[in-house]
Amino acid sequence: MGYTVADGLFPNESPIGKTIKVLGRRVTVIGIFEKEGEDMLGISADKLILLPLNFARNVINVEDERYDPQITVKGLGDIYINEVESELRGTMRSIRRINPRDDDDFALNKSTILTAQLDQMFGIINFAGAFIGGFSILVGGFGIANIMFVSVKERTNIIGIQKSLGAKNYFILLQFLFESVALCLMGGIIGLALVFLLTLLAKTFADLTIIVDMGKVLLTVVLSTVIGLISGFIPAFMASRLDPVEAIRSK
After folding, report:
1. How does pLDDT run across 209-230, given as a tens digit for each residue?
2. 22 - beta bridge partners?
3. How many helices and strands, by DSSP H and E, does the chain display?
4. Residue 180: burial class (beta carbons within 10 Å; 0-12, 13-18, 19+)
5. Residue 168 has what DSSP assignment?
6. Residue 19, SS3 per DSSP
7. Where are the domains of the chain?
8. Which of 20, 120, 135, 245 is the most buried (most CB within 10 A)?
9. Which residues, listed in sequence order, are joined to residue 28 by a DSSP beta bridge?
10. SS3 readout for 87-145
């Protein structure tokens, strides 16, 4: 029996070896499923009771559609699913003595059907997320560029002094590029912190486990660095090309 059923019938004690009634017949509990919770479709083994087939046949009509009869089959690891499906179809048609020209009077449902639908749904979600994220990156990039232009404007005099003391153009360029990248990395780190906080809240209050892919974390760091370089390059280049005399006079 499932964990929820066992906990409801025998709270705070082991039900193994205990006797219960199912459809008026006495049965002995021989095992309990580990607690697994519900999946995305609300299906869970926690509320199920499994009975031996021969016993169930004596209690109910296992072929009655009211009980949604089904057989679950798992192929060996080295056999392709198409081969398993073909073998099952042939076996079922043979058992049911279906004429070769007649259609199947049964259904073969593969678990891949559900995963394909979920993949399609998550594909749409990923596309929407990428679309919204692209706009966010664009706005953020313009924001960083704006900040860097203002920073160059306010520090023009300091840039002139640095160049008059012998600072090379590449030194000024790298100085502002590092600053731009640092701003983007700070934003990326804050975003990652918020994601980890939300996953923690979801796990604590919603009993929902969310896994943060480390590949995505690395992608965030790389993307933040690239956006920082792109957004800060023009302001940094302009700063590196300033004339030291004119820059000192700007104040």
Report:
1. 777 778 888 888 888 889 989 9
2. 25
3. 8, 2
4. buried
5. -
6. strand
7. 3-69, 71-109, 111-249
8. 20
9. 19
10. HHHHHHHHHCCCCCCCCCCCCCCCHHHHHHHHHHHHHHHHHHHHHHHHHHHHHHHHHHH
